[in-house]
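Trying the structure run again after the queue cleared.
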Amino acid sequence: MALALKNMKTSGANVTINPDEFVRQLKDKPLPEILSEIRNENVRYEQWKKVEMADGKKRTKIVEREETRDSFISIVHTQVRDFQEHVSRVRLQYQALNNLKENLPCENVIVQMDFAENFSCTSADEVQSAYWNSSAVTLHPVVVYFKNEQKELEHKNYVFVSDDLGHNIGSVYTIIQKLLSEIKNHVNNLKVVHYWTDSPSSQYRNKTAFYIVSDHKNIFGVNAIWNYFETGHGKGPCDGIGGTSKRTADLAVRQGKNNSTGCT
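Done. Tokens:
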């Protein structure tokens, strides 16, 4: 949406290029009024598009296009409508998650998880050429919400570290297996796990994941509900945990407290 706003501004519309601010702006100034400020009969604009490269592979790049004013306005209307629907779904999902936290039964837990960017293992005294041969590990932050004996909401943070760099459902299954054993030590008579994740098909949204959640009771001894966030829903607690973990590890390496080379 940011690129669409940039195109509108370049074409003469008095509009912010911040998507969130734009949504608020629409409450005071309707979209037709904003688009009426575009005067040129032909509009040149930029668009993300998959382009076939010389090696035959397709890559997403910004390409320049030209449309008539009416065609451009029609395109913008579609983009704005889709973005507003996207924002609405994201808000409803976070409302549902917050409501679940407030009304979480004592025998239920919420598991919010996501893969972080891989962490590059380094050494404080490495030679320059070691930069190009560094190893990496997978980081998978998890936040578990549960009610304590006083029925107050608590949470515990976990970071699963692995030298398996395949961010796939096999890794997710292993993480769930280890995680549930840990959760059962903190939550008595656990009955239901509410998973909240992104929806990439390679990680959480595929036939294996659907099998796991459908047979969760037989596999792990508790029922499960799997909820998927809207694509591009913004940052969550797992992003903060992943970033803090990597920053803490980097700081430890620089201070000579720990050598993360070859970590598993």
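Residues 69-102 form the longest helix (34 residues). Worth checking whether this holds up in the mutant runs.
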